[in-house]
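Morning, I've got a small favour to ask if you have a moment. You're getting the sequence in one-letter code plus the fold written as tokens. Thanks so much in advance, here it is:

===
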Amino acid sequence: MIKRARQALALLSAVLLSAAAGCSTGKASAPARLGNSRAPTPSSAGGSTSTVAPTGAAAKGFTLVASGDVLPHDSIIKRAATDADGDGHDFKPMFSLIKPVVSAADLALCHMETVYGEDGGPFTGYPAFQSPPEVADGLKDAGYDGCSTASNHTLDAGAEGLERTLDRFDKVGLKHAGSARTAAEAATPTLYTAGSAKVAHLAYTYDTNGYPLPEGRPWAVNLMEKDKILADARAARKAGADVVLVSLHWGTEWQTEPDETQLSLGRALTASQTGGRPDIDMILGTHAHIPQAYEKVNGTWIVYGMGDQVAGEMFDYSGARDMRGNYGSIGRFTFAPPAAAGQRWQVTKAEFIPQMMDLSTGRVVNIPAALAKDPDHEGYGAAREAVGEAVLSRGAAKDGLKMSE
């Protein structure tokens, strides 16, 4: 218990800050519902709002967990059917070993690369994916709060597949960013409450595999354009966001090094400021199938690629089986409140957790936890080494990034 005087001071600070800025606090498990609202944001309606993050005794930091591509191939779908014991598909066991990490975070974000088929199927893997809707149930059970949904596979089943996916997300209580069913939904930033921060999540993809945007729906999928990303980030600030996270589906498949688009766009996005404050607080990358580096650029963390979280057997462009396609990293970042109003929230701790899709068990494995139980497991040891080498390949250790043990 804190002393009575300190209680009074904290209460007075909270009341004054609330009156001045309109901020509220809450847990990530009960996020603000703006992300799925069908009404336009104040900025899109011609007005603007802004909030000031609480500082001092009333402020509370948060932890963010983010992970890579969920890409259910045919073998993954079959595994989920086996785990369901003949009753549909059950993806909850697949995520059970990373559930302690995901559920412990104040805010946990995934990347749902594929779209969902109709209840009961048919379901398909590569090349045009239609996944069982129960994937969303497994993600929710693991502790995820929401996912980015903009990818090169977002239009594999047209507008109908996109709608089925977001409808299922709504049903299970997952939020989403990057694709939309209506123009109003597309114009509304996805907002969460984590600690005492309002966190915006925006998402974009480099392409949709040549599938055109649905007729009359140019807003259905967010395409990766610098000016749009920055405009959306600024609109999210006006809608009340203290922290802006941007998911980008980008990069060159099977290439560990970030490509020139990743490097140049990453520099441009992290350099952009409004009123001396960065427009974007973190970039979370997906798509390359293999782990890529983390790097601090212009004072902002960029995760170029987290690799696949869920995928079947992966084959590179030469046709060779490549285990890297089943390796990934989970990023875990601790954000602290700003010291003064108008300043950015700071990342005070940056970690990554190597993971692996173990096809022999059909489980996403937390590698450090698995090695703690079985230090001599050759496959997990090799995975940890490969993921660590990739993630740290651009010198992020000097900026404090550490592998979780």
Summary: The first strand starts at residue 62 and ends at 70. Residues 25 and 196 are 4 Å apart (CA to CA).
